[in-house]
Design goal:
Residues 72-341 form the GH16 domain. By secondary structure, the chain is mainly β. It is 10% helix and 31% strand. It contains six helices and 23 strands.
Length: 367
Amino acid sequence: MYYDQLFFAAFLIHTTLASPNFGRSFRPSTNSIRSRIRSILPSLNLSWFPPSPTLQSRSYSPSALDVNPNGTTFLWLPEDEYSGSTFFDNFSFYTGADPTHGTVNFLNATAAFSEGLAYVQDNGVVIMKGDNTTTLDEGVNRNSVRISSNKQYNTGLFILDTNQAPWGCGVWPAFWTVGGGTWPLTGEIDIIEGVHDNEHNQVTWHTGPNCTLTPEGNFTGTIVQTNGVNNTNCDGDANDNAGCGVTEWSRASYGPFFDQQGGGVFAMKWDENGIAVWSFYRAAIPQDIQAGSPNPSGWGNPVAALEPGGCDPISNFVNHSIIFDITFCGDWAGNSYATSGCPGTCSEQLMEPSNFDVSSICVGIPI
């Protein structure tokens, strides 16, 4: 299992070109936008999607501005890009026990590189995968990887381009962010997550108390239920840590159909207006993302959204690192295995290495 092309289009900072704190709407002229960008960009040395124009030479029109609910406007500017040969320089490898009780050994960087579970191809594509070469006795942990960004974030627009994501019986991959400090009080945002050969991605939030998903929110997915009741309580210490989750409507958002479509792009926007997630299969990636000028206001309703009326997105989510991991069985994939339609038991599935040939993440394909 691997993420075939692990490419971040970039992480972006929410740079406001307005004065919402004073209740004053300001829409800058194109020349003032360009002047503001020129004052920032020379220090970035960041390349987006070749052969697109460089940021220094690209002109920004007022249509590139995102809009707050109060009518003020702002522009997303690049802060970090994680891709290519230096990708793993910006991440640390987690080697502790799996908090979700998976049957897994998370390898350190040296072992992961040596065993071919983490590497960068000659074309710059980043690969992370679970072991698919070792036959195991029943109950023995399978090797895999979990990495965490060295940098922490408080709000932003996060864009991931991947042409393959892990799936398969007993497999449980995730792309997520988690806060520093005591979990779940600083929050967790699960952007890509699923088990087995599911076809629909699940977006989930885990927080401390006093955080609720708004059922009437503007999103296209379906709220996850337990025993017929919507999981709207995001408290990670309640309801067996179910959190508040939304399942995407598209069959191409996870699993075999996602890979057959050539993967796609996932975007997570986190600011004072809430936390929202969009996903686009390869043929439907918005032009503004492809051009390196992402503007969520033109993407339509997100697949999942946590609105500020039910959950403060600033106080409940603090100092987040970016995580990729691939685990096996455990609290979700293990407990749901008997009803998944997969053969045998999860522990039996884990023994045969060929069962995990699609357990990889690939990131880094240029758009």
